[in-house]
Amino acid sequence: MQKPLEFEVIKNCTHSKARYGKLKTLHNEFETPIFMPVGTNATVKSMSVDELKEINAQIILSNTYHLYLRPSDLIVKKAGGLHKFMNWGRSILTDSGGFQVFSLGDLRKIKEEGVYFRSHLDGSKHFMGPEESIAIQNNLGSDIMMSFDECAPYPASYEYIKDSYKRTSRWAKRGQIANKNPETQALFGIIQGGMYQDLRYESANELVEMDFLGYSIGGLSVGEPKPLMYEVLDYTVDLIPKEKPRYLMGVGSPDDLFEGVIRGIDMFDCVLPTRIARNGTAMTSNGKVVVRNATYQEDFTPLDEECDCHVCRNYSRAYIRHLIKANEILGARLITYHNLYFLINLMKNIRTAIKEDRLLQYKKDFFAKYYKI
Ligand SMILES: Nc1cc(N)c2c(=O)[nH][nH]c(=O)c2c1
Ligand SMILES: [Zn+2]
């Protein structure tokens, strides 16, 4: 019988830790490294599932905390699960809810059993621990689930991080035991440990002992300087068994995608492409274009001359700028479509470069244009 997740490394880069692989869930098989569009409320904002398929999205991320609060995981379960509810036949990864719950600040209280918090929607009181997080994700029916964890803040003391990651390890074990669907839903452990190398080692070793089907690297991209993120990434990736997929949470700028792939990361997610789109900024081969600027008022060229997406083949910067200035929904929609296509296409080119063993050269060529150096 097929496992809920099968992963194969097909080609290792000779000049970095990058690898080209394939990951198979019960819904589809896709190549890695891969970028996962974020679909917080069971929708990648403003994109229909047909458009997601058009841009070749293979797996999307949805947020457990948000779906638990609204419409509730029980309603999604009654609909037949998240795939059915949102009519998405490809893979879905759900986060654990921990990240959102912890970001509620004073609205939450952390205890050994879990986190007591107030809903950001109506202030109602709730509790989420590892068992509740996994039960919600079981109800959602995602292909890949995350263990309930604390994404510790940055900066944080050694003592705080030590207590925090140890609790995250205990929560990971409890979540593993609580998983009602181990044959159909894969569960990842999330490595924490802040910016402390020995704590990262301890966190990783404790989770590797528990033999998860994949591992996320959490607690990064939380405001730390980029060089520090890359340094922690460098040694943390080495702690994860090579045959398991590695997921770097919350990362998705072109720079970070390249740096993450080069350090051996297989999966990425980030709200950046969709968030900046709503503010009128497009990612292009020649860097970011803030299309709302007056510069583009009579610019009848596409967002990106080198992009073959539907938006770049049919609409001009001037038209999209007009939509954004007029606060027309289509403006954000068009830039979102293009930005997601841009990152998904970038990952396709990165995979090709790994297969042809020319990733570092590709990175140099990409940024020579992106930053005009
Ligand atoms: N940058 C990050 C983004 C994220 N969505 C998460 C997360 O969901 N869990 N745990 C994490 O540490 C984390 C870090
Ligand atoms: Zn485009």
Topology:
Elements lengths: L4 E8 L6 E7 L3 E4 L1 E3 L12 H6 L4 E4 L1 H6 L3 H6 L3 H4 L5 E4 L3 H5 L5 E4 L2 E5 L6 E4 L1 H11 L3 E3 L11 H21 L7 E6 L5 H13 L4 E4 L8 H12 L8 E3 L5 H9 L4 E3 L2 H7 L2 E4 L2 E4 L19 H5 L2 H9 L3 H27 L3 H12 L3
Parallel strand pairs: 4-14, 5-6, 6-10, 10-11, 11-12, 12-13, 13-14
Antiparallel strand pairs: 1-2, 2-3, 7-8, 8-9, 15-16
The structure holds 3,5-diaminophthalhydrazide and zinc ion.
The site of zinc ion has 8 residues, from helix 12 and helix 14.
Architecture overview:
The model has no long low-confidence stretch (mean pLDDT 97). α9 (226-237) links the parallel β12 (214-217) and β13. The protein is built from 15 helices and 16 strands. The strands form four sheets. The protein has an eight-stranded parallel sheet with strand order 4-14-13-12-11-10-6-5. The termini are far apart. It has helices at residues 49-54, 64-69, 73-78, 82-85, 98-102, 130-140, 158-178, 197-209, 226-237, 254-262, 272-278, 310-314, 317-325, 329-355, 359-370; strands at residues 5-12, 19-25, 29-32, 34-36, 59-62, 91-94, 108-111, 114-118, 125-128, 144-146, 186-191, 214-217, 246-248, 267-269, 281-284, 287-290. The longest helix is centred in the C-terminal third of the chain and has 27 residues, at 329-355. Zinc ion binds at residues 303-304, 307, 309, 311-312, 338, 341.
